[in-house]
Amino acid sequence: MTKEFAVPPVVFPSGGNPSVVSIQKRRVPSAPFQPSRATNPSIPFMSFDIGSVTTASPSPATLYGGPIGGATTFEAEEPLLDELGIHPDQIRRKTLSILNPVRVNAHPHTDSDLSGPVLYYVAFSLFQLLAGKIQFGVILGWIVVSSMFLYVVFNMLAGRTGNLDLHRCTSIVGYCILPVAVFSAVSLCLPAGGVVSFVMAGFFVLWSTRVCTSLLVQSCPDCEEHGGLIAYACFLIYTLFAMLVIF
């Protein structure tokens, strides 16, 4: 049995298709506000025409709020090593002056630094480590104590004319440890405790003593008469470092 429902009739408005009527009654939007163009074409930023202004990428200095460190570009800044006080060219010139024990040039050592001594200290300690000796603290402690010892001895001998400060004394002692570091590298190929090791140890100790004494005496010309006492102090210092290699 089916049930019938009363469906009300659909009445369309007069005028035809309702979609056409609604489209006709819809209000056409007006054009948005467009400001007037600038009359002066020489000022591009006053023009509202986007296509007339060329966009340029900002420079790094402008992007980060101005110059960095007083420099307009990154190329004008100093290298990182120079900012840290490490000058490879200066270390090279000082190293070449150490490698010539016959004619020592003290001019590169007028500006003291600790970059080269730290480099040779690390090299010396690494060679000792290859020999099975962990002596990083021992070598560093002996360098500090020997620098203070040589500083006191030199200034006592020089008197009022002595102009050697502790920083420069540490720099000279550290650079002159290079021959002992070379001896530590050579001793890796030599039998321990042999006659050859003692002979080579004496050669490298005299090399370091000669260079260190020349640098100290040239820094104070009035101390030439005390050169023997200064050489004796330097000989004791580098003999201790050579004993670390032999024994």
UniProtKB/TrEMBL annotation:
InterPro entries linked to this entry: Yip1/4-like, Yip1_dom
The keyword Membrane belongs to this UniProt entry's keyword annotation: yes
UniProt GO cellular component terms: Golgi membrane; trans-Golgi network
Location(s) in or outside the cell: Golgi apparatus membrane; Membrane
Domain Yip1: 112-246
Family to which the UniProt record says this protein belongs: Belongs to the YIP1 family.
Protein name: Protein YIP
